[in-house]
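Quarterly update, task 2.4: flavin-adenine dinucleotide-bound model.
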Amino acid sequence: MTPPGQQLDLLIVGAGPAGLSAADCAAREELSYLVVEKGLIADTVYHYPVGLTVFSTTNELELRPGALQPCREKPTREELLSHYVRHVLEQNLNVNTGEEALAVERDGAEGFVVRTSRAEYRARRVLFAVGSMARPRGLGVPGEELPKVHRRFVEAYPYVRRDALVVGGGNSAAEAALFLAEEGARTTLAIFRADWENRDPKQGAIKHWVRTPLERQIELGRLTVLLFAGVEEITETDVRIKKEDGTTIVLPNDVVFVLIGADADLTLLKRLGVETARSGACEVPVYDPDTFETNVPGVYVAGHFTHARHIKAAIEVDAHGDDPDRRWRQLHPREPLAAAAWQRTTSNKE
Ligand SMILES: Cc1cc2nc3c(=O)[nH]c(=O)nc-3n(C[C@H](O)[C@H](O)[C@H](O)COP(=O)(O)OP(=O)(O)OC[C@H]3O[C@@H](n4cnc5c(N)ncnc54)[C@H](O)[C@@H]3O)c2cc1C
């Protein structure tokens, strides 16, 4: 709770890489700031599959150059999570976990009131760094609410010698299918032909280091790739799937993973009057690409629910983010700007 009459310079919603990067900026600038996080520090990373090796290199993920030192070339989920948690602890960042922002409203002429599940705060500026995992997409078919149907994949071990179906065309689905097949689940990956045949990394093709072992599992007969048109029904014991040729197949089934993406929850932003626009399959807030300020003065956005789709862009402070000196040179210590306003590229200004 901000004491009566006091106002934070900046309130940040979300402690993912984007929110933590902004908090780091705010702390260095000696702003009064607070991050409220409804889950855990780096909650999205926490929910990656156990033991996953991420696809980015350390320089694309770390909050300080050289701070993330994995055992192998790329970090695991656990190493990345530990990096973000340690950063919060070592820098003593003001992060409240288990506290959800429920409403953000204008507070007179300047500033905002942020009501959370625990308190009420006043802040001059608000940065939304809420990510895009709030609403996992579903199939909209009968049986989808059965307890055996999951929207997240955590680990393979409960499904050894079980009949598992993974639905999805991206890396998350492919990796889940790979982990399941490798650990002895009888696995089917239901995927659209266009996704299976996509080899363009810029169009979200399955990464080659996932595809190669996946194909090995297919050769070994442990994984079936089913080019499908849609799931028709899920029951306690099986799934009915429409194949791409229009025929229907019924598979015995113990568990289903629906990994077809997720959407951000833009409710709080929209209630404030922030405009949104379509970008591919997603709805994104409209914002100034230089300052990350939305059409509502004082409301900023950063991270995965903007046009930044990876951690590298979510935490980038400027185009020379690898160089700590240049990274901070443009900051103006006594000017209480929102940290998001600094998350701009300097390339077009030099
Ligand atoms: C399995 C998997 C592997 C991935 N691997 C990589 C990789 O190798 N490299 C890469 O660059 N990207 C990877 N990504 C994507 C990456 O996780 C995201 O780009 C990144 O998490 C985005 O950071 P963010 O801070 O914008 O959002 P998030 O990390 O999603 O953080 C948003 C935070 O906001 C919180 N929040 C939301 N609403 C509220 C609210 N109302 N009140 C309080 N808190 C709220 C959420 O709980 C969450 O912690 C991967 C994603 C997945 C699922």
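Highlight for this quarter: The pocket of flavin-adenine dinucleotide is lined by residues 13-19, 36-39, 43-45, 48, 54-56, 100-101, 129-131, 133-134, 172, 303-304, 310-312, 314 (CB under 6 Å).
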